[in-house]
Amino acid sequence: MNILIFNCGSSSLIYKIFEVKRPDNIKVLLSGKAHRVGVKGAEGSFIDNSYNNKTSKEILSIENHQKAASLALKFLTEKNISIDYVGHRFVHGGSEFRDSAMITEDVFKKLMACLPLAPIHNPISLSVIQETRKTLPDISQYVAFDSAFHSKIPEQAYTYALPERIVKEFGFRKYGFHGLSYSYVTKEATRFLGKGLDELKIVACHLGTGGASVTAIKNDHSIDTSMGYSPLPGLIMSTRCGDIDPMLTIYMMVMYGYRPDDLMDILNKESGLLGVSGTSSDIRDILHSISEEKDQIELAFKMYIHRLKKYIGSYIAILGGINALIFTDDIGVHNWQVRKKVCENMEWAGVVLDKKRNENVTDDKTCKINTDDSGVDILTIPTEEELVICLEGLRIIEGER
Known about the structure:
The chain is an alpha/beta fold. It has 2 domains: about 1-170, Nucleotidyltransferase, domain 5 (2-Layer Sandwich), CATH 3.30.420.40; about 195-380, Nucleotidyltransferase, domain 5 (2-Layer Sandwich). The protein has helices at about 65-80, 105-115, 120-135, 155-160, 165-170, 180-195, 245-255, 260-270, 270-275, 285-290, 295-320, 330-335, 335-345, 355-360, 385-400; strands at about 1-10, 15-20, 25-35, 45-50, 55-60, 85-90, 100, 140-145, 200-205, 210-220, 220-225, 325-330, 365-370, 375-380. The strands form 2 sheets. It has an 8-stranded mixed sheet with strand order 5-4-3-2-1-6-8-7, with helices on both faces. A 6-stranded mixed sheet has the order 11-10-9-12-14-13, sandwiched between helices. A hairpin with an 8-residue loop joins strand 13 (about 365-370) and strand 14. The two termini are about 15 Å apart. The mean pLDDT is about 95.
């Protein structure tokens, strides 16, 4: 059985085909990634594809995720690979979805109703579902939700300090995201460290080229997380502002005439690193340009690090100390400068980074980058959200048989 997985990030699309012989016998048959999808930056977009130990790279305009999906589907069609099921990452299922689901017509309508909850992510995932339906109309598809991992966050952490009637009427609460990634790296950390889930208190940082978040994890459960009802709050991200004073949006509407849809675009698509630096939404571009002595570019990097350290510190306090600090996703794994700055002056929490190990991380496997006398294990873990989605699909398929 071959399962095709699509994983949409805000500025990327990963796809993998898993060949499944048994739940304990799964291998990647083909994989690829579209980079800088719709990104404004110093470099152009491209897609790479890997099959039969050969990797190709095509540089071309990829203006949206539907186009990226069409390129991926075209590649696997050219390789004449059959597909039995297609699984999708869907960021925000709201109160409607607490578990993965096959995409029936009823489920599709409910997914459409969830679009406003994650205005960057949910629409692009739906567009990829639609593209796949068009290309592979007879293949069953399913969705796995990023918000599910955080469903057991304590009430004091997920409840907003609003009038109770408002919270109940509209269902406002913290949902949290990147749950598929956190599920994977938590289990990988226990395997790598040889410890049980009940032995670890973890702060995990999912740092992508688009979205980014931090989560406090204890006993394999999310205790708190930086994103909220939507993926907008928390860290400073590529084009998202993260935490701001909510009164600013009121002022912009009432005093300066901004419309709600204007604010949605500004906060989600024009802020963050792009808004502060004025040049790029990609932290890699920011780092390359700091030496040019442009004040706003350096400020963007300092703000990114400051916000990240603040969340890590607060979650260490909530957990009462930690055993492991995890960095994952593209920036978390591939960018030693970010890790170096984040871990500076964190000895008070037992976090002591080994400079040489940090600069020589192997990108495709879990690495320990702390000193031998560090009180906290600092790990870089390449996330495998696609494998988690594949396993979710197997669980659903088995349940339907």
